[in-house]
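Bit of a strange request maybe. I'm writing a small parser for structure token strings and I need a real example to test against, not something I typed by hand. Could someone generate the tokens for this chain?
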Amino acid sequence: KQWYQRRVAITAGGYQWGEEEGLGKLAVCVNKDPWEKYCVEPPCGQMNLANPNLYDVVEDIYRDMMDSFTGSAFHIGGDEVNFNCWNTTTEITDYMNQKNIPRTEDGFMELWNEYQEKALARFRTANGGKLKDMVLWTSHMTEPKYLHYLDPNIYTVQYWESANNHQLPNLVQQGFQVIMSNYDDLYLDCGFGAWVGEGNNWCSPYKGWQKIYMNDPKRILTEHGVTDPALWSKIVGGETAMWTEQAGDKNALFKIFPRTYALAERYWSDPTTGWFAAEPRLVYFNSIMEKRGVFGNTMKPEWCVQSQGICKLNNL
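Reply from user aminoacidic:
Good idea to test on real output. This should exercise your parser:
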């Protein structure tokens, strides 16, 4: 088992600042509208891979993060790249034409990989000539067709696709270590009202602690036909994800806890029993954490906490 420390992601457009400092455009598609064509959610903006000054700034950011945070792992992101943004940006298309890179899916993947390799080299420089356990999200680059761009000896993949997606068995079979964060079980922001439309948000329904507790990677891989325990061991951990479009300091904790406690027991204990047997432990632990000042979502009335084993449906 491995312990993954808290990771911090920095997202910065850098558009006006770059130009004011004489660095040119560091980002493209900044605040483009209609945003649906250029990014996953507003505000839009992607790094300008045609600008060589970008990599100096990326290295400086890496160096600042090395000075501020410790740990054996470093998450470099790598998700939600929008090819239409690049394809409609003159700086990017001119750069691709100069390098004879076609404006096709394969061509944009070649461009993406160029950034990936340069950014990795800059990280190595910023970290004194060494790499850490480099973590990145599943994306188009982790699809079987393009996975050859990534080295399993360098990258650990944080898996956010659904549990039944074909990427998961392929990743472990190709030797990658995987952190499970499949959205259909482990996304904590699901099941609330949409913030860019009506109805509920994209990953609804809400994931209760029981569903999270049953996120058993061995079972999931077995359902994909992966039954070799050596491949099961490629799943090195799991992480709930609390995205903050609709979470802040006033409501984040009740969305995070006690559901994340459930995942902690699943991945540390690897239980052979299900959520029903775990409920008394989780209810008690949640009450202990509340006494320590960590107030998550209330699981049961106080009487049920004091009367363990009574507040259950008898047919379960």
